[in-house]
Structure formats: C-alpha cells, structure tokens
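Possible regression after last week's pipeline update?

I re-ran a chain I had predicted before the update to compare outputs. Posting the input and the new output here so someone can diff against the archived version. Not blocking, just want to make sure nothing changed silently.
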Amino acid sequence: MSGDPFEQRDYSGHRFRDLQLGGADLHGLRFEDCRFEHCDFSGATLRDCRFRDCEFADCNLSLARFAGSQVDARFVDSKLVGIDWTQAWWPTVRLHGTLAFERCALNDSSFFGLSLRELQVLECRAHEVDFTEADLEDADFRHSDLHGAIFRRSRLARADFREAVNYRIDLFLNDIKHAKFALPEAVALLHGLDIELSE
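New output (post-update):
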C-alpha cells in the first residue's frame, strides 16, 4: 500500500482504530494527543510526520521508518521490531520522558547515540537492541528481557534494571553510577572481570 488515507494534515485528540497501513508512505502528517488502537503500520514510511503526546496500543509498527519524524509517544502491547530510531528527528533540546514502551517487542532495533533520558522500556522483549553511545540516564528497564542488547559507551546513570533479565553491561565501557540492579541477575555485571566466582 502506497497511498495516504488521511483526509487532512493535522489531527488533535483523535482516536484511530484498525487502520491497515502496512507498507504505506505517509508524509507531513501531524498528530497531537491521538490514540491508535489495533493499527498496522508494518513496513510503513512515516516521513516528516509529528506524533506529540500520542499513544499506540496493540499496534504493529515493525520495520516502520520514522524518516525525519518527531516521535513523542507511548507504545503499549505493540510490535516494533527492526526499527532504526536514529532516522527519526530528535530536537537538540529534548524534553525528558517523551518515549515509553510497555509490554512491547523491540527486537533488532537501534537507538545508537540518541539522547533518551528517562526512556521507559517496561516488561518488554528487547533482544539484540543497540543502545551504543546512547544517553539513557534515569531510564527504566524493569522486567524487560535484554538478551543480546548492546550497551557500549552508554550513559546509564541512575537507570533502573531491577527485575530485568539477560543483560550484559561492561562496567568499564559504560557509566552506571547509581544505577539500580537486583540479584541474582546483577551477577552478570561481574562477567568480563578477571575474577573467579564460587557458589
């Protein structure tokens, strides 16, 4: 699908349900305080769009491209696999806490080098996600599965990893000052140290 089904450019306070926009090419749309439910944006290109204070619930956005789009949104029970978030537009002065994921699939996505303080990744499956060089201070990863996620030169000060599982964070390559961890998963922080662990 390549057409644009929207009749206007600006929407505020709208509720959209069951949109089938897989593979669509959407350009220059602006959404404020809108809610999307059971919508399919898989493989869609969202070019120079703006989502402000929006929520996506039970949506599929896998392989979507947010080319130059501003994304200030909360995603719940949604599939967002294979998204390169670096393609979106991120303002130089960024408000904190404007991107949140809850019970979502984020596998194989990239947040490389982004400033995402107070990012929320709650109860998510985030396998093989690239957080290299990202500013994730005060981020919340509680109850998420971070198998294969890459943290390299990442800023994780005060980030919350309690009840998160399968993470591998190198103490020497990342800033984890005052980050929160819980046993037994926190033992993973000792991997890579030249020490011997005994039970």
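Follow-up from reviewer: compared with the archived run. The two ends are 57 Å apart (CA to CA). Marking as no regression found.
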